[in-house]
């Protein structure tokens, strides 16, 4: 199995042609903390499931928005951005720059979500621990 730190389709994307076989030890989603944490001590930051993002998908958004992560919120657009790779994707799609879409009313075994919070600095973190 090697030093895998994410659940994704290995190599050229072939599962090996054998049912129940995968280089990373998981055929579909894996339990949280199955793989070692990254250098920041964070688990499961790539692979396993792609993640919904709170932005409408527009294929040309990078052309008219000047930020690294364009957030287009069009209430009439039901295509929502999905980022990161999942258990069914090859390594290329694990990059955070990889983005695709899925319709907001769809459910897929390879899409999940992650809750996030803005990091406001050391003082805020210390204050939060003291509460």
Give an overview in words:
The protein has helices at 61-64, 122-130, and strands at 50-56, 79-83, 99-103, 111-112. With 131 residues, it is mainly beta. The protein has a four-stranded mixed β-sheet with strand order 3-2-1-4, with no helix packed on it. The longest helix has 9 residues, at 122-130. It starts with 49 loop residues before the first strand and ends with a helix.
Overall form: globular
What Rg is obtained from the alpha carbons, in whole angstroms? 17 Å
Strand content: 5-15%
Order of helices and strands: EHEEEH
Look at the helices and sheets and give the structural class: mainly beta
Number of helices: 2
Biggest beta-sheet profile? 4 strands, mixed
| Residue windows where pLDDT falls under 50 for at least 5 positions | 16-21
Distance between the termini: 42 Å
Helix percent band: under 10%
Beta strand count: 4
Mean pLDDT, all residues: 74
Sequence of strands across the biggest β-sheet: 3-2-1-4
